[in-house]
Amino acid sequence: MNIEPSSETKQTSGFIQTFKSLSDPNFRTLWLGMFFTVASMQINVVTRSWIAYDLSGSALMLGVVAIARGLPQIILSPIGGVIADRFDKRKVLMIAQSILLVLALFNAILVHTNLIQIWHLVVIGIFQGAVFPFTMPTRQALIPLLVGKDNLPNALAMDSAGRNLNRVLAPSMAGVLITWCPTIAFYTVAAFYLISILTMTKLPSVKATVDSTQNPMQQMLYGFSYIIENRRLLIFIGMGFLAVTLGMPYQQMLAFFQDDVLHAGPEVLGFMYTAVGVGALFGSLFVVYRSGDPRRQGYQLIAGVCFGALLIPFALSGNLVFSLTCLVLIGFSNEVFMTVNHMMVILNTDEHLYGRVMGTYGMTLSLMPIATLPMGYFVDKIGGSTIAGAGFLLAVTVLILSSIRIQGANSGGVLKYVP
């Protein structure tokens, strides 16, 4: 006898299905460790931006501090991808996290002793930027090896949701800590890195996916040639480049908008980052729920246009409530766009190349601090309308690329990118 399941059972099954990747204990451990890692990074972004602007009063210096971290990431990301494929990923993560812990402690001590200067932030940023390329590709290469292909879209979306939950909680925490005692805010970054390291000790060892006796330079070059020959990957990485260079630098400029445009205190900076995080959290949860939807690329293109278009009213607004509303919507559209893009990069990559492809993709993400420097220069010279212009250019370019993609799909050309 066939019995139709009740609506309650269907809803429960649907809810469980939405978060199915967390049923894997190893992925739960990785997810929890990642949660504290991202908390450290988010608090670090807010505290470094605040103290850089407090010391200099210049949006350009925000770009200088950001670029110090971005340049090493661009240079070392391909190497980090090779390391992720050649060695035990758990050990690579723990070593990298330990170095970040030491750097965070050093930064906190400089603030504690009132010795901190802009050049300290630049130097620390360089070392942080040299370590980050060994964490992101390694973690992203580890996820599919823990959960398998069937649960991979959901796991990637859950990874994004966890990061964005932190974007809601960590910046507001940073704003409160800065207002109360900036020194504690910087020590909190180190404490969260320590918790992350202790959590990751519970992860299993994961063997290398390539022969570590082979020439690493040849392996890196093979990764580049693989991407060049895979036109789907080229398009996805290109779309990520577009969003990172034109859209995402606004985040590094929030201290400028908080102080010079909205004329608000440092606690508002935390709320601004939190508003972005709230939108991004709902955006990533939307992708979690729709992770199996074949229309997700359509969502990506719509989100990309909205991301650029929403930067225009935000940049031109002088009202706090309206600005926070725009930031929520910007965070949502940005996250849908980037999460789906990230998902498609992984889904179109062979298992033994996860690290190298994500290392190359990490180069694209690392361009945000580089793009922040000229953006900061023009913000100093022209004002917030610089961000509005970049948003307009992003929206128009996404529309153009969308038109090209559709034409390529209709003609059967190589520009059709479907999973």
Structure in words:
With 419 residues, this protein is mainly alpha-helical. The protein is built from 16 helices and no strands. The protein has one domain: Growth Hormone, Chain: A (Up-down Bundle). The longest helix has 32 residues, at 25-56. Helix 4 (89-112) runs antiparallel to helix 5 (118-131), helix 10 packs parallel to helix 15 and helix 10 runs antiparallel to helix 16. It starts with 6 loop residues before the first helix and ends in a 9-residue tail after the last helix. It has helices at residues 7-18, 25-56, 59-86, 89-112, 118-131, 136-147, 152-180, 182-200, 216-229, 231-247, 254-261, 266-289, 296-316, 320-347, 354-381, 385-410.
CATH class: Mainly Alpha
Helix content: over 70%
Low-confidence stretches: 1-15, 408-419
Termini Cα gap:
38 Å
The portion of residues forming beta strands comes to: under 5%
CATH topology name, in short, is: Growth Hormone, Chain: A
Global geometry: globular
Q: How many DSSP H or I helices? A: 16
Main structural class:
mainly alpha
Describe the main β-sheet briefly. none
Write the layout of secondary structure elements.
Elements: H1 7-18, H2 25-56, H3 59-86, H4 89-112, H5 118-131, H6 136-147, H7 152-180, H8 182-200, H9 216-229, H10 231-247, H11 254-261, H12 266-289, H13 296-316, H14 320-347, H15 354-381, H16 385-410
Structure in a nutshell:
This protein has 16 helices and no strands. The protein has 419 residues and is mostly helical.
